[in-house]
Request: fold
Amino acid sequence: MAEASNSIWHAVLLVFLGWLLGLLGPIVVDAIRKKHRNVEIRNAILAELHEARNRLAATLFLIETRFGAFNRQLLQWLLTVLESYRGPNPNADAIGALRQLLGANDAQLAALAQQAQAPAGGALGVKKYSTRYLDSRLADLGGFSEKAQALLVDIRARFDLYNEEVDQARYFFQLTFQPGITPENHALAGQSVIGGYRNLGSQARQIIERIDELNTLQ
Reply:
């Protein structure tokens, strides 16, 4: 009698467990899928920012060479950035060139910096940057910590500031060609162009540093 009772309860327990697993199964599967989706989104965002970091480094080098501070400290910093790149567009030639430049003495670097300076009224063909994938996933950042999410929002805002500086530099450069502009205003517009490019370089460097900080949180 006891054995029959035990068998009945065992059967009831199996039915109950089957029912419970049937209920929990979709929840578990959804949780696993969500986890994998978060990982995929996180990796895609980091890859997009890694590529932007690489391009910003090239832009920063061009800006600082033509309008800013071309010096050993800048070259060493850029070399560190380029050597850490792990994407599909390697920088072997640029890395080799930077190493050669760092092999020059201070007098040679100063002469090179003088030669590379843009003439008055010079301009660069800088482009805006977009983070299309990050923009499309701002509501799906569950794969990042809260600190990383805040950093991503800051990075996104700084790309907007960078693009605004591109517009400003273009505006003042075009202003230098305005018919009838006075020499004084022409000079002011030219200085604004240079200031705009320096601001671009500053924004580019800050974005790169924040992307590097984001990578340390992963």
In short: The chain has one domain: 2-216. Helices lie at 2-67, 72-83, 92-102, 106-116, 132-136, 146-175, 183-216. Residues 2-216 form one domain.
